[in-house]
Write a structure and sequence with these properties.
Length: about 220
């Protein structure tokens, strides 16, 4: 079976044991609009691209990851060797469900779901998430307040209904229970810290991210 990705066929999956990482990102100009009072449009675009680069770099370095796929309405700055699965922009959960189904049909039963706004994520964070998921079939990393979902690992051949949105941690745990999967909770700073507010930008400023954007 082959999957059409941004007008071409997706390359055959790497057959080495390991997870497929799905990195989800919206159309770039629609990302992080809540930061508009703190950052102009050009700076927001560079921030979004820089964070995506950080997530891609971490996924490339993870020992447990064999394939990286971006789920997005556009390729933009995604490297040419990374397949981009088209997302119509209507529903992230629907796009992820479709991607998960196709990967299962291609024989990839370990899937890591990552957003593109985790600027301090490391390869070791991803490896820890995948290894936790292998224990009971499911692992989840919440946001810093413990309500949202910042990353998932599914190690199962069963369908899964993604629940990104309000109260997603509780809903994802409920979905895991429905599908008969045990759940491992992963708490790591690189998975907890996402950028949604001007206060988050202050943390990035201390790490010289904004200075780099303005250079």
């Amino acid at each position: 079976m082959s999957l059409t990705v941004q007008g071409r066929l997706m390359p055959r999956l790497d057959q080495r044991r390991g997870a497929c990482a799905l990195i989800a990102i919206k159309e770039r100009t629609r990302c992080k609009t809540r930061l508009s009072e703190a950052l102009g449009s050009a700076a927001r675009l560079e921030l979004v691209r820089s964070m995506l680069t950080a997530v891609l770099s971490a996924a490339r370095g993870a020992h447990t990851v064999r394939q990286i796929i971006v789920v997005s309405p556009e390729r933009d700055s995604v490297p040419a060797d990374v397949p981009v699965l088209a997302d119509t922009g209507e529903c992230l959960n629907g796009a992820l469900t479709q991607a998960h189904r196709v990967l299962r049909e291609l024989g990839c039963w370990e899937v890591v779901i990552l957003p593109a706004d985790l600027p301090t994520i490391t390869a070791a964070d991803i490896d820890a998430l995948v290894r936790a998921g292998r224990q009971d079939g499911f692992a989840i990393a919440s946001d810093s307040v413990g309500v949202g979902t910042n990353a998932l690992c599914l190690a199962s051949a069963h369908p899964f209904r993604f629940q990104f949105g309000p109260d997603s941690k509780r809903l994802h745990l409920k979905e895991a229970e429905r599908t008969g999967l045990g759940a491992q909770l992963v708490r790591l700073s690189g998975l907890e810290f996402d950028v949604d507010s001007p206060a988050d930008l202050d943390r990035l400023d201390r790490q010289q991210w904004l200075a780099r954007l303005q250079a």
